[in-house]
């Protein structure tokens, strides 16, 4: 896999991106505070039929950090520039989890001509409540003072289901490793960006591309009812719930999630 990791100058920063396969471009946009490795099972599964593009976003993984605030729009602009750097003219199948979903709204708003379909995993269209914003800013303070180790273990119960923690301890271990390898300034910058993100709930009715909404039945952060409601507002949208898993459905139940995505992508081909 190593030789498929490339470093490109994108939008003024050095970005690490995994690229492999041929066929329609499938862009995998990771959640917070992780990196492209959260998509390992999806990469392995889809690289035989698609051109899989899985970047480390600004401030995460091995991509350069920007201090201060990195907005969701900034991430979307980075992805647009990345597609330019890769000379990709074909419209992309955009798959984003959680923060990757927040970036998806911005990508759809600013670069609709680049989008062929949307896959939204465990995310929401609303902005944060006042309490949500305060919690994000508290995490910023904690991480800047004490590093990512101060949040890694405590995030796990919100991210993966009790069953996943019990039956697949390697998932939590991998996630803790990813979180702890993330620079504190990178975590702080995107956390601030999420705190000030726009509310898209009144706009998503305008999405014209086929859309798949996937959620874990035990998701604490973006519960099924939130995503089901969101899906009903998107015109050409399919909703699917993965039983027994939490917020990290693609990592917790890769076989089921891959099958749902694959069926969806095949239906996009036929439309």
Q: In a few lines, what is going on in this structure?
A:
This protein has eleven helices and eight strands. It has 271 residues and is α/β, with parallel strands linked by helices.
Characterization of the model:
The chain has 271 residues and is an alpha/beta fold. The protein has one domain: Alpha/Beta hydrolase fold, catalytic domain (Rossmann fold), CATH 3.40.50. Helices cover 45% and strands 18% of the residues. The protein has an eight-stranded mixed sheet, with helices on both faces. One of its GO terms (molecular function) is 3-oxoadipate enol-lactonase activity. InterPro entries: AB_hydrolase_1, AB_hydrolase_fold, AB_hydrolase_sf, Epox_hydrolase-like. It is an enzyme of class 3 (hydrolase).
Sequence stretches where pLDDT stays below 50 over 5 or more residues:
none
Whole-number mean pLDDT: 96
Structural class: alpha/beta
CATH class: Alpha Beta
The H-and-E topology, N to C, reads as EEEHEHEHEHHHHHEHEHH
Cα end-to-end separation: 33 Å
Largest sheet: 8 strands, mixed
CATH topology: Rossmann fold
Give the strand content: 15-25%
Strands, count: 8
User: What is the helical fraction, as a range of percent?
Assistant: 40-55%
Strands of the widest sheet, in order across it, are 1-2-4-3-5-6-7-8
The total domain count is 1
CATH homolog superfamily: Alpha/Beta hydrolase fold, catalytic domain
Tell me the CATH architecture: 3-Layer(aba) Sandwich
Question: What is the tally of helical segments?
Answer: 11
């Amino acid at each position: 896999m190593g030789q498929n990791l490339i470093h490109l100058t994108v939008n003024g920063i050095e970005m690490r991106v995994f690229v492999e396969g041929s066929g329609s471009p499938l862009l995998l946009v990771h959640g917070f505070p992780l990196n492209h490795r959260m998509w390992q099972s999806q990469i392995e599964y889809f690289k035989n039929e698609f051109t899989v593009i899985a970047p480390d976003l600004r401030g995460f993984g091995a991509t350069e950090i920007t201090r201060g605030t990195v907005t969701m729009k900034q991430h979307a602009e980075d992805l647009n520039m990345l597609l330019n750097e890769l000379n990709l003219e074909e419209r992309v199948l955009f798959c984003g989890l959680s923060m990757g979903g927040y970036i998806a709204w911005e990508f759809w708003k600013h670069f609709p001509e680049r989008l062929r379909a949307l896959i939204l995993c465990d995310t929401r269209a609303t902005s944060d409540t006042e309490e949500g914003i305060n919690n994000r800013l508290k995490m910023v303070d904690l991480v800047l003072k004490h590093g990512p180790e101060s949040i890694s273990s405590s995030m796990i119960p919100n991210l993966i289901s009790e069953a996943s923690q019990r039956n697949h301890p390697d998932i939590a271990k991998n996630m803790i490793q990813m979180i702890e390898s993330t620079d504190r300034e990178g975590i702080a910058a995107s956390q601030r960006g999420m705190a000030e993100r726009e509310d898209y709930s009144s706009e998503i009715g305008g999405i014209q591309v086929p859309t798949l909404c996937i959620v874990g039945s035990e998701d604490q952060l973006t519960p099924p009812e939130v995503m089901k409601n969101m899906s009903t507002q998107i015109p050409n949208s399919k909703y699917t719930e993965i039983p027994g898993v939490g917020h990290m459905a693609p990592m917790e139940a890769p076989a089921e999630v891959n099958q749902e995505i694959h069926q969806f992508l095949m239906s996009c081909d036929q439309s």
